[in-house]
Design brief:
Strand content: 25-35%
Helix content: 25-40%
Strand order of the largest sheet: 1-4-5-6-7-9-10-11
CATH architecture: Alpha-Beta Barrel
Oligomer: single chain
CATH superfamily: Aldolase class I
C-alpha cells in the first residue's frame, strides 16, 4: 500500500497561479511564491505545479518557486528533453510530469526513467466523458484506450500515473470514483486522480477505491458561494485519519 497523499494542484500561467473550469475558463488565484508559502505553513503532503501555457520553461522562475517549498513537488509542462527534466530535478523538484512528449514518443518515458529512476517519472493523462458517456483521452492520436495508454506508459518506465478528469475540473461534483476503482485494480504503480474533489468524505472514498494520491484544486482555493479566493488544506484530525487509520 502506497502512502496516501492529498495534493494541492496549482496551474501556472503567465507567472501566476490559476484555477480552471473544465480546462477552459480560468480564475486568478495569486502569486505563486506567496501561495507556496501558505501551503508550506499548512504542511501539505505534496504540491503539483502544472504549466498550462506550455511555453519555453523559465528555469530561473521555477528555481524561485522551488526554493520556497518544503513539501515534495512535481512539475509538468513543456518538458521535451532529458536535459529539461534534469534541470528541473536539480532545482529541487522531486518528480517530473510528462504528457505531450510521451504521447508523441512513449519511449521518452523510458529515457527519463533510465536517467532519473521511475519514481521520478509521472505519466499525465487528461481524459473526459463525452455526451454519450464514453471515456475519451485528450490529444490522443493513437487508437489506445485510457487503460491501454496507462499500461503502455508503465511498461515504458512511468513510476506514477496522474489522471486529470476534464469533465469534473473545477466543478466540485465529486471525484470519478468508478475510474479510481477500475484503474487502481489494474495497475501496480501509484495512481493520482485530479478533478471534482468536493469534501473530506469524497477524498476518503477515493482512497477506499485504491487511489494513492488525490489532487485537489477548487476545494483548497475558493470559499463560499461567490468563490472568494481562500487557500486552505485539511486539518490535523483529517490528516491523521488518512495517514494512520485503516480506511
Amino acid at each position: 500500500m502506497y502512502n496516501r497523499r492529498v495534493i494541492p494542484v496549482l496551474l501556472l500561467s503567465d507567472y501566476g497561479f490559476y484555477k480552471t473550469k473544465k480546462f477552459k475558463t480560468k480564475k486568478y488565484l495569486g502569486d505563486p511564491i506567496n501561495i507556496v508559502k501558505i501551503f508550506n505553513e499548512k504542511e501539505v503532503d505534496e504540491l503539483i505545479i502544472l504549466d498550462i501555457d506550455n511555453n519555453k520553461i523559465d528555469f530561473d522562475y521555477l528555481k524561485d518557486i522551488a526554493s520556497e517549498s518544503f513539501a515534495p513537488m512535481t512539475y509538468g509542462g513543456g518538458i521535451k528533453t532529458v536535459e529539461d527534466a534534469r534541470r528541473i530535478l536539480e532545482l529541487g523538484f522531486e518528480k517530473i510530469s510528462v504528457q505531450k512528449s510521451a504521447f508523441e514518443n512513449i519511449q521518452f518515458l523510458n529515457e527519463l526513467s533510465s536517467n532519473f529512476g521511475s519514481s521520478s517519472v509521472v505519466f499525465s493523462i487528461d481524459f473526459y466523458t463525452n455526451i454519450w458517456g464514453k471515456l475519451k483521452v485528450r490529444n490522443n492520436k493513437s487508437n489506445l484506450s485510457l487503460i491501454e495508454l496507462i499500461e503502455s506508459g508503465i511498461k515504458n518506465g512511468a513510476g506514477e500515473i496522474l489522471l486529470n478528469d476534464i469533465s469534473r475540473d473545477g466543478m466540485k461534483i465529486g471525484l470519478n470514483q468508478d475510474i479510481a476503482n477500475e484503474i487502481s485494480k489494474k495497475i501496480e504503480v501509484p495512481l493520482t486522480l485530479v478533478g471534482g474533489a468536493n469534501s473530506f468524505e469524497d477524498i476518503i472514498n477515493g482512497f477506499k477505491n485504491g487511489l494513492s494520491g488525490i489532487g485537489v484544486g477548487k476545494m483548497f482555493s475558493f470559499h463560499g458561494e461567490l468563490d472568494g479566493v481562500l487557500i486552505s488544506y485539511l486539518n490535523e484530525m483529517q490528516l491523521n485519519k488518512i495517514k494512520y487509520e485503516e480506511i
